């Protein structure tokens, strides 16, 4: 039997990215076949030259053709791509426009929403707290968060049985189909249900969850659920007595030399300095009362409430710094012990992953590589943005790519697959990488 290449396995995972490792407000995208060919956006593409910024490619010209072609195909204004080899930043470029209105180009270190790539960050923070003795994998989440429970207990008694381990692995019982929608993308509905002014905060969302039923017995299956990681953010706050963002920046990001990652804002006017502008295909009611219709990237969800599951804003370069801190062989500073890394990448004992070539570990998609370190990956999809992060343990190559638009509706799944295939194929086509380290150029 011919074993599919790891590149093909990643692309296959990408076909289900909305349900596996995507933070998406679209519920229809997962019905699209990855074999769909011409995207709907192809009719509005342009042949205009796409600007590039950053250090010279130095023998990595393959990306100079592949990325602009992909942007034209899908009518995406801009993207940033960065590659690390054995812990050194060997390639980083900006492509296209960060803001079409003013013509500003994407820089290699431009800031983008990273969506569900926030989940590996939250997983590492959680595992770090376990190493510090402040938390345990089998701790009951809602014994820690008992302040969120109604006086007469949760609607579903199984809620108190859910553990930190299960939330990390998306096996805690949460199922958007049981709830009827993804609460993370319904800040008005959740707030109104809880009797507070929209948009719903992360705390309000977790309180809303205690009145919902689980979709399956905890620990018996896998269902990707943003709300599980939102809940982990509240666990981190409870055990550290510190705001989630502050704790992460001080204890995880800052030691790795990452100073520009922050939790993003919902409104366009509140975007960070050096953050790109996001482009969508429709408008939506603002989650803020009285603000009317807004572009979908600035109204589908409340980004601060997404903090631990999808709220971070950062650069492709900083994502590589983060991976360098996770893989003990690469970085000057190691975040986790080898034993913890083994737990993070272990195959969960649920039927979904029996015999599978890939699985979801703790915060990462994991592809075993035999006797070498596994491939770790995650993507992040929000209205108006898409990101992809992959770290191959067998050749110590890491790639991060961020885009400021994604495909609309039923084309999203096809877009996701093609984005990953383009990036991984281009990576594979580079035979020799420059002998250089560009990290110091981008503090």
UniProtKB/TrEMBL annotation:
Domain named Beta-lactamase-related: residues: 64-409
Keywords: Plasmid
Bias (Low complexity): 24-53
A UniProt-annotated Pfam family: Beta-lactamase
Domain of life: Archaea
InterPro entries, per the entry: AmpC-like (IPR050491), Beta-lactam-related (IPR001466), Beta-lactam/transpept-like (IPR012338)
Gene3D superfamilies in alphabetical order: DD-peptidase/beta-lactamase superfamily
Stretches the record annotates as Disordered: 24-57
Protein's UniProt name: Beta-lactamase family protein
């Amino acid at each position: 039997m011919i074993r599919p290449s790891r590149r093909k396995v990643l692309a296959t995972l990408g076909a289900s990215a909305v349900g596996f490792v995507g933070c998406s407000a679209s519920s229809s995208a997962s019905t699209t076949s990855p074999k769909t060919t011409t995207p709907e956006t192809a009719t509005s593409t342009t042949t205009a030259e796409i600007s590039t910024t950053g250090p010279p490619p130095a023998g990595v010209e393959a990306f100079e053709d592949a990325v602009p072609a992909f942007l034209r195909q899908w009518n995406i204004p801009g993207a940033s791509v960065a590659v690390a080899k054995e812990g050194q930043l060997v390639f980083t470029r900006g492509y296209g426009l960060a803001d079409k209105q003013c013509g500003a180009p994407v820089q290699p270190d431009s800031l983008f929403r990273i969506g569900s790539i926030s989940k590996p960050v939250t997983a590492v923070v959680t595992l770090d707290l376990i190493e510090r003795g402040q938390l345990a994998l089998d701790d009951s989440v809602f014994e820690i968060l008992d302040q969120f429970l109604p006086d007469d207990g949760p609607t579903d008694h199984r809620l108190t049985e859910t553990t930190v381990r299960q939330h990390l692995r998306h096996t805690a019982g949460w199922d958007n189909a049981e709830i009827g929608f993804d609460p993370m993308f319904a800040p008005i509905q959740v707030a109104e249900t809880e009797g507070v002014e929209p948009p719903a905060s992360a705390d309000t969302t977790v309180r809303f969850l205690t009145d919902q039923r689980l979709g399956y017995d905890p620990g018996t299956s896998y269902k990707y659920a943003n709300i599980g990681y939102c809940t982990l953010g509240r666990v981190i706050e409870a055990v550290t007595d510190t705001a989630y963002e502050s704790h992460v920046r001080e204890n995880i990001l800052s030691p790795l030399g990452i100073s520009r990652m922050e939790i993003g804002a919902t409104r366009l006017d509140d975007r960070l300095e050096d953050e790109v502008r996001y482009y969508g295909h429709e408008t939506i009611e603002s989650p803020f009362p009285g603000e009317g219709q807004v572009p979908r990237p600035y109204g589908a969800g409340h980004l601060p409430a997404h903090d631990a599951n999808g709220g971070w804003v950062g650069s492709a370069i900083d994502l590589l710094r983060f991976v360098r801190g996770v893989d003990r062989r690469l970085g000057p500073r190691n975040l986790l012990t080898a034993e913890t890394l083994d737990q993070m990448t272990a195959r969960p004992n649920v039927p979904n992953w029996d015999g599978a070539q890939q699985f979801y570990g703790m915060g990462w998609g994991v592809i075993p590589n035999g006797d070498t370190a596994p491939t770790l990956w995650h993507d992040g999809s929000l209205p108006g943005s898409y990101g992809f992060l992959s770290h191959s343990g067998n050749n110590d190559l890491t790639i991060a790519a961020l885009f400021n638009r994604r495909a609309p509706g039923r084309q999203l799944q096809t877009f996701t697959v093609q984005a990953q295939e383009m990036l991984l194929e281009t990576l594979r086509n580079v035979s020799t990488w420059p002998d250089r380290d560009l990290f110091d150029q981008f503090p």
